[in-house]
């Protein structure tokens, strides 16, 4: 049970890291600002942030149910995962850690919003935030894709949790939006200071987590690939 709660906490932390990494953070801020400027009541701004978070959570939960359940329901795949998961996990964690430390970089085309989509979102009012949450959750950047597909999904498969792990991850990816929604509702002049603090925190958290990922990946590789015993 303790292992499950640790995995649940890891899923939450992966979601937080995803939410404050540069690309998702930019879309998060763009989304809440985009919808927030269309409503006059502070309560509506907060509701927009909440709906945006629900939209993201729904996408990750559906993806988790489809991908994790399909893998676990196929006997051959499930057997292979049980047999080789720890072997694959080591190199996978090392690669994700290197991406976090920007030792491996990718060119990202960004995730712009077309004029047609902007008009559609504006016409939906507060509920447009839900649509943006769904769309932006599907707009994977290299780092967010690595965190979701290479870190969260193996964790969910290992714990056989196709709903809870992705759902917790999805909620965590929307936390900055809720934070910015509260700030927007209480006064937009605090937005810049909050953003700068999150940017600094993101760099520190990403680097520490990247080093930890590489360290754990090296441990898994030595233990399960090369058969090194540490006990």
Annotation keywords:
mainly alpha; globular
The main β sheet shows up as: none
Q: If you compute it from the alpha carbons, what radius of gyration comes out, rounded to the nearest whole angstrom?
A: 19 Å
Q: What is the number of beta strands? A: 0
Helix/strand/pairing class, anyone?
Answer: mainly alpha
Count of helical stretches:
10
Distance between the termini: 23 Å
Gross geometry: globular
Q: Which spans have pLDDT < 50 for at least 5 consecutive residues? A: none
**Overall pLDDT metric:** 78
Task: Tell me what the structure shows.
The chain has helices at 2-20, 22-36, 42-73, 75-100, 115-123, 128-138, 142-158, 164-173, 175-186, 191-225. It contains ten helices and no strands. Helices cover 81% and strands 0% of the residues. By secondary structure, it is mainly alpha-helical. The longest helix has 35 residues, at 191-225. The model has no long low-confidence stretch (mean pLDDT 78).
What's the helix and strand layout?
Layout: H1 2-20, H2 22-36, H3 42-73, H4 75-100, H5 115-123, H6 128-138, H7 142-158, H8 164-173, H9 175-186, H10 191-225
Helix pairs in contact: 1-7, 1-8, 2-3, 2-6, 2-9, 3-6, 3-8, 3-9, 4-7, 4-10, 5-6, 7-8
Summarize the entry for a quick read.
Helices cover 81% and strands 0% of the residues. It is mostly helical and 231 residues long.
